[in-house]
Amino acid sequence: xxxxxxxxxxxxxxxxxxxxxxxxxxxxxxxxxxDMEMSGSNNFAGLSPVxxxxxxxxxxxxxxxxxxTLDGKVGDDLKASLxxxxxxxxx
Length: 91
Known about the structure:
Elements: H1 22-31, H2 63-70, H3 73-83
């Protein structure tokens, strides 16, 4: 990444909860001390209870159904529910 962006972007990985558990890292992103974090949808339910919907068993028929749903209006609504809380959802 650094080479492709001519040094404009640098990526430093912190694996295995080095910076804390999911909640601590989400707080870090919201507070600006962590730039990016990847976590399961269940970890965001405290900020947006609607995220609990994604944990319903057999919600999607298959992977294609999940992608179609989450890449559409439903996904946009879920993202919007977090973006007003100091987070920018990338995927």
